[in-house]
Amino acid sequence: MEHAIRHHINVHFDEDPVAYRRLSERLEAILAEHAGNWEQQALFLAELAEEVKSHDSERGRGDSQLNNVEHALYGLILERTATDGVPAPERSDRIAGFTRRLYATAVTATTRVDFWRKPVDWEDFKGEITGMLIEDGICPEDDAIALADALFEVIKANRRRVRHQDAE
Predict the structure, then answer these.
(1) Which of 7, 92, 124, 152 is the most exposed place for a label (fewest CB within 10 A)?
(2) 3-state secondary structure of 10
(3) From CA 114, how far away is CA 103, in angstroms rounded?
(4) Strand, helix or coil for residue 5
(5) Whole-model pTM above 0.90?
(6) Where are the alpha helices (DSSP H) in 13-140?
(7) 53: nearest Cα among 23, 21, 73, 17
(8) Closest CA to 70 of 111, 121, 18, 134
(9) Cα distance between residue 115 and residue 101, in whole Å
(10) Are 37 and 23 in contact (CB under 8 A)?
(11) 164: burial class by Cβ within 10 Å (0-12, 13-18, 19+)?
């Protein structure tokens, strides 16, 4: 069961790095806490396996009204820009709004013909993300390029989910 969970996490990690990192950390904690106690490991691994199975269907639901891709982008932005444990509601709302704009920009950019076959277009899009991050004050200029690259990788991993709302 451990290997199946690990495999699922590895396969889907780039789609939502923050959520899958947490699942991976939880897996490691279960293995460390219950080393040698196979019954307890099996019990906790079964619970974790259920959580992993339901992760995709639950991801992005709730009060935020973000879709799965937006939720992954939002989580990454929060993780990279958080100064303390819980963001203030205004900051959270600002990041959610930015995330929706970023997703809309991604839809426009990535649904152009042959976008995913043109690395030059990828670099242009990363530059656009960097500009948006700086313009909206989401992160310091020094961190914007690295965050834009990470956000692009999430969009790329989710490219089959990035589409116009009326196409869903």
Answers:
(1) 7
(2) helix
(3) 19
(4) helix
(5) no
(6) 17-33, 38-58, 68-81, 89-110, 119-135
(7) 23
(8) 18
(9) 19
(10) no
(11) exposed
CA angle 87/95/116 to nearest 5° reads 135
What 3-state DSSP class applies to 87? Answer: coil
- N-terminal to C-terminal alpha carbon distance within the chain: 34
159: which 2 tokens? 């490219």
Write the CA distances from 1 to 19, 35, 38, 56, 145, integer angstroms: 19, 15, 12, 19, 38
- Between CA 141 and CA 134 the distance in angstroms is 6
Structure tokens at 102: 């970023």
Token duo for residue 60: 């992005």
Q: Where are the domains of the chain?
A: 2-58, 68-167
| Pairwise CA distance, residues 84 & 100, whole Å | 23
